[in-house]
Amino acid sequence: MLNIILPIDFSDATDKLVEGALKFAKETNGKICLIHVAPADIGFAIGDMGFQYFPEVEQNEIKEELLRLNSTEQKIIAHGVDCEHILKQGVASDIILEYAKTKNAGYIVMGSHGRSNMYDVFVGSLTKELTKRSPIPVLVIPIF
Predict the structure, then answer these.
(1) 119 Cβ contact partners less than 8 Å away, ≥ 6 residues apart
(2) Ranges for the UspA domain (predicted)?
(3) What is the rounded distance in angstroms from the CA atom of residue 40 to the CA atom of residue 32?
(4) Confidence (pTM)
(5) How far is it, in rounded angstroms, from Cα 38 to Cα 33?
(6) H or E, element range at 8
(7) 61 in Cβ contact with 42 (< 8 Å)
(8) What does the alpha-carbon distance between residue 34 and residue 42 come to, in Å, rounded to a whole number?
(9) What is the C-alpha to C-alpha distance for residues 7 and 14, in angstroms, rounded to an integer?
């Protein structure tokens, strides 16, 4: 079975991205491996006393994201496609490529908003980063 890595960030585009990945998985008899990469600094805040760490904020955020991952996994399974999920913290591009390697993935499915190069200069683009660095094919789904 073909393992398809599907990084999701729970943005407005997530549903459309999942829809495209489902179609691709059905056409290739693939299994979707959902991954969400949370920032490593999720529980940190800057206040009057400098950086402070709030573990309860991090724990609550991680719990919420795991619930959302589980819900997305169940929706995919309801469409007849095998699925599993994982949540990790760190640098998204590194974590996704490492996960794709451990899953012996055939593809990584990403979305593209079709924004200009100027947007990439100031904000960066995970899709662009992965298409440059990935040793496996990256399928880019337009999200408009």
Answers:
(1) 125
(2) 3-142
(3) 24
(4) 0.86
(5) 16
(6) none
(7) yes
(8) 20
(9) 9
**In the block, residue with structure tokens 């999701």:** 8
Domains of the chain: 2-142 (3.40.50.620)
Q: Which two tokens stand for residue 96?
A: 């996704």
CB 8 within 8 A of CB 15: no
Q: What confidence tens digit (pLDDT) does each residue in 33-64 have? A: 999 998 776 655 666 666 666 667 678 888 99
Instruction: Say if residues 88 and 38 touch (Cβ distance below 8 Å).
Output: yes
Q: List b or e across 102-111, with b for residues whose CB sees 16 or more CB atoms inside 10 angstroms.
A: ebebbbbbbb
Residue 37 β-bridge partners: 88
